[in-house]
Design goal:
The chain has helices at 3-10, 43-46, 55-65, 78-89, 102-119, 140-144, 149-152, 170-176, 202-213, 264-267, 283-298, 301-322, 345-353, 376-397; strands at 22-26, 29-32, 37-40, 95-99, 127-131, 162-165, 181-186, 216-220, 244-247, 258-262, 326-332, 335-340, 356-357, 359-361, 365-368. By secondary structure, the protein is an alpha/beta fold. The chain has a 7-stranded mixed β-sheet, with helices on both faces. A 4-stranded mixed β-sheet has the order 1-2-3-13. A 4-stranded antiparallel β-sheet has the order 11-12-15-14, covered by helices on one side. A hairpin with a 3-residue loop joins strand 14 and strand 15. The chain is globular and about 65 Å long.
Length: 398
């Protein structure tokens, strides 16, 4: 079977796929169906933080698969209970709701914020202020909360109740919060929006505005969480905490799981029947998620992320000094972007041809989100590849 041809015949055409069929992964390397290897700086879009086929996770999946896969949330299970306890013990939160994805986690956050105010006698407070260039998911509620027209295009009318302001602009946010506002929702670092890191005081100012207005603060940490920025959650860099936080992507290192974390005060509005998810937090995925978190925090991997991210940014800065095509290098931990003065797609394709998988967002921002176990040698190899590709692109433009 030709994977690419057969897939194009039978799978919905919702992805602009590269002509690459991947069949195997190990650590930070993946292989295609022709046996060619690639160093992976995409990691399933910031998902495989421990790399591919991590031996301890393979063992955990196997052991749990022999024990219990799924029994519905009508019953208690040990893996789900242990994961919830771990997450609350290592965060601001008191309660966790499990779903299958970041979109589901964000959907739960939106519903909880609205229900909280309804339960407390102010149903007129239902609006959520979100950020321009944000990304929160593809369901109707989460795309309505997403501040990118290209994501919402074709789905009008979007759901009512979302207002948008520029990220990192506290004055506009202050003006947007009103008597009908129930929450402010944002990513501590915008990922799909172009690896945009806020100013040092911005998130603390947002927290203060929410407190003064009596509205909730929701952090979407689907991409920034689970060690990606060098902390378990990115909010830890900024000395404040949200009322609600969403997580997914790297939480299961590739298995589908999402989680919404909240304080007891807010989570009290989720009573039996208020929200549900058939496959949310199955024994199989929660066992793997718990093992993922323990490996990340107990084996020193999390402690190395900021150092590796700093090294990657330093090497990109050196390329920037050589190549005017690179306008800016930015990021936090191993969530790193390089803004170009030209389209990034040709560079991504040429790097892929040379055995390195990188990503491009917003048309001109190269995004580097490798597994957190990436080595300096692998970073050096990617930098050398990128250097050669940029030289080739520039020479062909002359």
């Amino acid at each position: 079977m030709d994977i690419k041809i057969t897939a194009d015949q039978h799978i919905a055409n919702t992805y602009a796929r590269f002509p690459l069929a991947l069949v195997k992964g190990q650590g930070c390397t993946v292989w295609d169906d022709q046996g060619k290897s690639y160093v992976d700086f995409v990691a399933g879009i910031a998902v495989c933080n421990l790399g591919h086929a991590h031996p301890a996770l393979v063992e955990t999946i196997s052991a749990q698969a022999k024990t219990l896969w799924h029994v519905s949330n009508l019953y208690y299970t040990q893996p789900q209970t242990e994961l919830a306890a771990w997450l609350t013990e290592h965060s601001f939160a008191d309660r966790v709701f499990f779903g299958n994805s970041g979109a589901e986690a964000n959907e739960a956050a939106i519903k909880l914020a609205r229900k909280y105010f309804k339960d407390n006698g102010t149903p007129e407070r239902f609006r959520i202020v979100s950020m321009k260039q944000s990304f929160h998911g593809r369901t109707m509620a989460t795309l309505s909360a997403t501040g990118q027209e290209k994501v919402r295009k074709g789905y009008d009318p979007i759901l009512e109740g979302f207002d948008f302001v520029p990220f990192n602009d506290i004055e506009d946010l202050s003006c947007a919060i009103g008597p009908a506002t129930c929450a402010v929702m944002l990513e501590p670092v915008q990922g799909e929006g172009g690896i945009v890191v806020p100013g040092k005081e911005y998130l603390a100012q947002v927290r203060r505005l929410c407190d003064e207005a009596g509205c909730l603060l929701i952090f979407d940490e689907v991409q920034t969480g689970i060690g990606r920025t060098g902390k378990l959650f990115a909010y830890e860099h900024f000395g404040i905490a949200p009322d609600i936080l969403t997580s997914a992507k790297a939480l299961g290192n590739g298995l589908p799981i999402g989680a919404m974390l909240a304080t007891q005060k807010v989570a009290a509005s989720f009573v039996p029947g208020a929200h549900a998810s058939t496959f949310g937090g199955t024994p199989l995925v929660t066992a793997v998620a718990l093992k993922t978190l323990k490996i990340l925090t107990e084996e020193g991997i999390l402690d190395q992320v900021e150092e590796k991210g700093s090294y990657l940014r330093q090497q990109l800065e050196k390329l920037k000094s050589k190549h005017p095509i690179i306008q800016e290098v930015r990021g936090l931990g191993l969530l790193v972007g390089a803004r170009l003065n030209t389209a990034g797609a040709p560079i991504v394709k040429e790097c892929m041809a040379r055995g390195y998988l990188i990503n491009c967002v917003q048309d001109n921002i190269l995004r580097f989100i490798p597994p957190l176990i990436i080595s300096k040698e692998e970073i050096d190899g990617m930098i050398q590849c990128l250097d050669e590709v940029i030289k080739k692109e520039q020479s062909s433009d002359r």
